[in-house]
Structures are given as structure tokens and as C-alpha cells.
């Protein structure tokens, strides 16, 4: 059975699609068979990335390692039993079509609470939650006092993950390995950065997730999107010498992949 990776939170602009693109492509480049789904049926940023990658490879005659992207299939509404949700059936059919011959299935969720996202979280073997290094984003996980030091209680997204964990436990499945990524961490040792670190470490112990390093804000991520490329593809398209920023970004991706500790993955790029 494929190991299912879900990239999700309920806030836009946290870097979910950027993380999805790089994790899926890194796994493919490491020799794993990867399937991919985008549950943001409106924007489909990850779906656009997969489309851009396919078109670029065709136009340039390249065969770059890639995840196999699938759209959610339509379902026959008349075939649904009373009370069945069509979105549940569409997601189940998409996962079933991939899991037999894939090592990993990566599911990119929208930045809002939807039925598809809720169900996807209950399927997650590994859950990746990108978070900008800000108490605005931290509020997605928990409410804190005015000083940002005392945690008052869990927020809506944490409660949704808790419900997903309960569903998995009832089904006899392994617990979700929940990894929260700190994206766009400031380079300087600012007071807010230190408070965020302490708050995340405190919350991690209370509700059960791991904290891992994510990506800093880099222009290269936006520049590569129209061609569906990642940092790992640059040498294959003729870039012989990486600049300092690209080298640093590549190291961030390496650190992220190691921190995820996915089964059978040896990070050697």
C-alpha cells in the first residue's frame, strides 16, 4: 500500500503548494513511484505545476522524474447510496487508482475547510503543515495570550487533525505522523522568532506534532513554477553553476526531506 502524504492547513499563503511540488518531485527523483492529487478544485496550483512540468518536458524533449498527477474522477450521482457524499467517492476512487503501484501518494489540500480536505486528513500517514513564522499563522494551531507565551487552547485546525486521528484509531490504522514546518523564518534572532520557537515546542508536546525546518522566501520558487521545475532539475536543463541562494534553497529541501523521515527514503541529492 502506498504511504499517503497530506500537505494541509486551513490558511492560504503558507506555502503548501511549494512544499507539495518539491516533496513530490524530490521523491520521484530519488527513484520512488509517486502519485499526486490536488484537492483545491478552484485554484489547482499544484495541478497547474504538474501540467507545466509535463508541457515543458514535451517541448524540450526531456524525461524528468515526475509524480503521476491525477484529477479527481467524476462519479455517477445515481449510483450513490442514500447519504453518500460524492466528494468522498471521488477522493476514494482517485486514491484507489494510484495506491496499487505507487510508493507514495501526495495530496495537496486547499487553504480552507472543505469536506475533501477533512477526509484527506483522515487518510494521512504523514501530515505536513507549513506555517509562516508568525503568530497570525500560529493562531491556526492554538490560541495564545497577549504576550504569545501562554497557550490558552487548541484552534480549529488542531481540532480537525484530532478528529482525523480518532477516525484512524477507530479503523485500526497507524497514528498520523504530524510535521509542522516553519516557513519564512527570519534570518535574524528577533524576539518574535524566539517566541514562536518556544510556543511551537510547547504546543508540539501538548497536541503531538514534530517541528521541522521549511523554506525561506526565495524568488527561485516563483521563477521555476511556469516550467514546472524544482531546484533539483536545474542541472538537467543546463545550469552548471548554482548561485548562493539556490545552493541554500537546495540545502533547505535536503533538510526538509531528512526531517520528514519517510519510510524507505534515503536522501542523497
TrEMBL record:
InterPro entries for the chain: DNA_Partitioning_ATPase (IPR050678), MipZ (IPR015223), P-loop_NTPase (IPR027417)
Organism: Lutimaribacter saemankumensis
Protein name in UniProt: Chromosome partitioning protein
PANTHER family listed in its UniProt record: COBQ_COBB_MIND_PARA NUCLEOTIDE BINDING DOMAIN-CONTAINING PROTEIN (PTHR13696:SF96), P-LOOP CONTAINING NUCLEOSIDE TRIPHOSPHATE HYDROLASE (PTHR13696)
